[in-house]
Structures are given as C-alpha cells and as structure tokens.
Amino acid sequence: MNVTITPSSLEGEARAPPSKSYTHRAILAAGYASETTVRDALWSADTQATARAVELFGGSVERRADASLAVEGFDGRPSVPADVIDCDNSGTTMRLVTAAAALADGTSVLTGDESLRSRPQGPLLEAVGDLDGEAFSTRDNGQAPLVVTGPISGGEVAIPGDVSSQYITALLMAGAVTEEGVDVVLETELKSAPYVDITLEVLADFGVEARKTGDGFSVEGGQSYGTTNGEYAVPGDFSSISYPLAAGAIAAADGGSVRITGANPSAQGDTAIVDIVDRMGADVTWDRDAGTIDVSSAPLSGIEVDVEDTPDLLPTIATLGAVADGDTRITNAEHVRYKETDRVSAMAEELGKMGVETTEERDSLTVHGSDSTLSGATVRGRHDHRIIMSLALAGLVAEGETTVEGADHVDVSFPGFFEMLEDLGVALERT
Asked: Where along the chain is 3-phosphoshikimate bound (predicted)?
C-alpha cells in the first residue's frame, strides 16, 4: 500500500497504542507461566510473531473480544517446536525466542523475512554456546536462519552491551527457569538501557527477581512465572506516542492542539520525546496522573539529542529537525543502523528527496533545518514502520503532496496510524 499525504492542520485527540516492547515481554512471560490474561496488548505483526512462538513451544494464545489475550503457557519448559519458528520482521521476537529455544530439550530453527535475516544475532548465539547449549547461523554469518539446541542449565556469560539490549532481556527471561540461573557480564557499555529496565519491571510483575550487578545483570534459577491475580496490563507506548506528539508540534491548527491519551509514566526510555519536543520549542503539557499530553505547534529550534538509550526516536527527531530552525544533531546513533533498516542512512536519504540537508556520520545524524525546504516527493518506507511514520509526518508540512511507498508496514507497531492521522484532520489517500 502507498499513502499520499496532503499538507494538513491537526486538532483533536489520539490514543496511544499499547507498548510493543511491553507486549512482547508480557506474551513470552505469560508463556513461561501457566495461565495469564494479558490486557491492553498490542496485537500487531511483531507481537503476533511472539504469540506464534509461544504456541510452537506448547502454549496457546487466544485473542478475546475485549482485545485481551488469554495465554496458556508451557510452565517454564518449552517443547521442541513441530515447525520452524518464523519471526517475520520482529527482531525482538527472534532474540527473546532464541534464548527460550535454548531451554528446550532438542533443536529449534528460527528464521524471518529478508530484513530480519540481515540483522546481527551472533553475540546471542555465542552466549547460548557458553551456557552449554548449541546455536549457530546456517550461513555462518551471525544472521538468521538460526539453529538452536538445548537445554541450557545456566551459568555466567559475557556479552557486548552496545549491539542490542535484547540479548540481555532474552538471557534474563530464560535464565529465571534454568537450574543455575544466569549471570550476564557486559563486555562493553550498555546501549538502550531503559529497555532492560522494562524487562526488569515486567519480570517483577510476573514474580521473577532479577537485578543489576556491578558489571551486568543477574537472575537466579529455579523461579516460576506468574502474576498475583493472573492478569497483566500493558501500558501505552511512548515510541508510538512520539508520532502524534511530533505531528501536533509541527502541524497543530492555529489556536488548536492535539491531546494524546494513554500516556501514563513507565520505565520506557522513549518518554524522553516529551522533553525533546518541549526543548525544541513546542507548547507541551504532560499530566502524568491523568496520562494525557497536550501539544500545540510553535516555531521549533534545533537541539542536540543523544539517542544512546532511545534509538527508536531517531526517525521522529530527524523529521522534527527538518522543520526546525538551525541544526538538530542526533548523537550516539551507531546502534540505530542495526534495526529493520539502517535508520540513520534511511532518514538522511529519504528526507533528502524532500529537500532536507543532512550530514551523516557513523555515529550521528545532523539535520540542517535552516538550509532545508520541505517539498513533497515520493519516498520509500523501506519495510520499516518507524521510517514510514516519520516520513508521513514530514508530509504534513511539506509543500505539495508526499507519497510514502510500502506504508502498510506500520502494522508492525501501530496498525491504526493512518486512521489516527485522519481522525486528527489529515487528508490522505491510499493506493
């Protein structure tokens, strides 16, 4: 699907979709448990991949009429899957499920789409081997398809912290049900640290104790998963909130505003987007108790933003920088190159088609707003939900029409994204 966007003024209310990060962890944690109802879950292409994996491990996931998920788990010991585990486009699924597969008494095979088969998995495969399992890439390049054989019993493992925090999440979640537990020693500085904080929060909610140590993280073995009342509620997603928030900051109607609901505080690092938009000059108010954010547009100014802990915000910040006066410099961004696509280069190249001047370095992206004139163009979504949504925002204020190719990939994290824009007053056409 392609979507063509006409410059528009926005006003109204948008509800944040549930958090993708929390939903992934909750579905798998419920899989490790016996029976759990996961409320307010995001039912997207990515989270459905995690649900399928739980089912292949011997559990079941049923989506009810109220959009909750009834999960019957495999009680901490996954069965050997009867089929290949297809993780589709979900890197989170592949990494979390790789460690889960290492618990099974046998061999599992994991694969995904072309994009996922290009993403690095090597450090996690080595970690499984260090824990006395066996894991390898069929192409011997550290990328899927993967073959994983268990069971592991736990132990100590060293792993880099600057490639993906999902490696740590995977090992902690699986480590809780091993005999010995798992001690994770970080070989390098941890990037995206708030995502591990999310993991620790979800584990605690499921009765599992894991902790930070002086050189990494530790989880004791022999633990059982389960919530106190058999239920878990997923909070709103601040990665997704960044889009209506940025849209209001650049395109709210004169005298009007955009209100975002479901914006309750949590461990998500991407709550930083509220401060970023405020620092750039938009009029933004976050009522934490009510879980609402109100934002009105105003002239924006470029700032410097470190995305070491918030990599998913880079595309949104790049679009804000294209509208702002002066330079917006996004730093500590090398790990953002290992997402669904190289998001640093993707935003530089696609915004460049719209007349935006950028300077790309290995670890940073600088957007020269004062040297740019946003003009409508045909841009590629690159099979990446965050690139698509960020380019769509640019189309709200570009001169002329902007067509985003491959726009249906928003289903990965925000299935109702374009409907939300229409509800806020955006004129768009699907082809």
From this structure: 20-21, 25, 164-166, 192, 312, 339
